[in-house]
Amino acid sequence: MRAVILSGSGRYADPWHRFAETSAALAGIIGGAGYHVEVSDDLLGGLADLGDADLLVVNAGNPDNPQPEGEPEPPAPTDARLTAAAAGLDAALARGIGLLAVHAAASTLPELPAFGRALGARWIEGASWHPPIGEATVHLVGTHPIAEGVADFTVFDERYSGLRLDGVIEPIAEHEEDGMRHPLVWARELGASRVVYDALGHDTRSYDSPEHRELLTRALDWLSRVPAPTFDAS
Hints:
Helix content: 10-25%
Structural class: alpha/beta
Number of helices: 5
Strand content: 25-35%
CATH topology: Rossmann fold
Number of strands: 11
Radius of gyration: 17 Å
């Protein structure tokens, strides 16, 4: 199976996330799950050239955020690049692909509305937030097969909160802050495709958690089963 990790750089980098490091950690987990892994820091070019990839992983940031210190402001993408990226994403979702989006991917690719619709939620500036990074308890919820047999665990990470849900999600994990539960990991089925969003993964310490790695490994197994099965209700 072929996996493509699209890692934030240029417009899709920011001062807070070391995408190259977390993408390398993800590549290790995904390779261990049996995938041939390719990592690219060309987000739009990678979408346009997905080809027959079985798994798409997006680990990138918001192009409206500031650039890392000392980095020049990159130029805006051309209409042609955006059109090609949108066409590549649409074709992959239509034929059936596993899509894993992590952490800051909830705010990436605002130029491609289909990406946000696929995730089922977005980070909204001024409304979404996170408590200070630190030790956090991840609560497993629901009956999704990804969560089966996985117990609650702790991880050193940021806990995204207040994401705007735009679609139906099947929750897998949550965290609690100020007496409220917030979704952290969820799954979706979109036609022939399957999607998992994992709000964890601020830095490599998140992937030091064996339970987090196990949860991702189970997610990768579920995502590999595409095209997603369809059921005849007649």
